[in-house]
Amino acid sequence: MPNLDSPQVIKVWDPFVRIFHWSLALFFTVAYLTEDDFEAVHFYMGYAISALIGFRLLWGIVGPKYARFGNFITGRDKVVSYLKSLLTGNAEHYVGHNPAGGMMVIALLLMLALTCFFGMTLLAIEGDGPLAGTFVTVFNEDLIEDVHELCANATLFLVFVHIAGVIVSSFLHRENLIRAMVTGVKKVVAKKDEGETYVGK
């Protein structure tokens, strides 16, 4: 475990972000695998994911520096520029999320939110769940079921892209991003302006 008092490491991911990240990964996996055979578990996982999303939206506003959306949400040009720089092996290091990683966070939160919403809409059409009795009950059940499944599969696709991005970034930047999300720290090798350039080993 890195020494947090050492100037060679910097604390990046706070405990709440790390708990959110791994809990979301677990809950989505369970929800996806229990869609057909264990409906009660599937429903509760959906509620848990919804609660996590709500927490992350709040934490993205009031949380510490690297948890805040303002720290990693960038424009399209920065995302494209970063992705191009990855191909040359000369991508800039970021202490928190890089532009592509930040975009992935938003994409995953959005797709998970849509998956949960359409799942609750299905329950509402059947007269159950928190949306029962609302306007969503007028929707066609078969259509909503297809959209819910589409969103879930799109989320799974984004998860695979996310994992691939973590592997590529870890290799190119010579850092262990998975370990950083467990320990919460990364090694700092230099300082540049107000940000830090680092490499985790």
Automatic annotation (TrEMBL):
Stretches assigned to the Cytochrome b561 bacterial/Ni-hydrogenase domain: 12-184
Family annotation (InterPro entries): Cyt_b561_bac/Ni-Hgenase, Di-haem_cyt_TM, Hydrogenase_cytochrome
Per UniProt, what is one Pfam family of this protein?
Ni_hydr_CYTB
Gene Ontology molecular functions: electron transfer activity; heme binding
- Main localization of the protein described in the UniProt heading: membrane
Q: Superkingdom of the source? A: Bacteria
**What Gene3D superfamilies does UniProt report for this protein, alphabetically?**
Transmembrane di-heme cytochromes, Chain C
The record's subcellular locations are:
Cell membrane
Keyword field:
Cell membrane, Membrane, Transmembrane, Transmembrane helix
Transmembrane keyword on record = yes
Q: Which residue ranges traverse the bilayer? A: 12-34, 40-59, 103-125, 152-172
Q: Indicate how the chain sits in the lipid bilayer.
A: Multi-pass membrane protein
**A cellular component term (GO) from this record?**
plasma membrane
Which Gene Ontology biological process is one annotated for this entry?
respiratory electron transport chain
Q: Which PANTHER family match?
A: BLL0597 PROTEIN, NI/FE-HYDROGENASE 1 B-TYPE CYTOCHROME SUBUNIT
| Protein name listed in UniProt | Cytochrome b561
Q: Which organism is it from?
A: Amphritea japonica ATCC BAA-1530
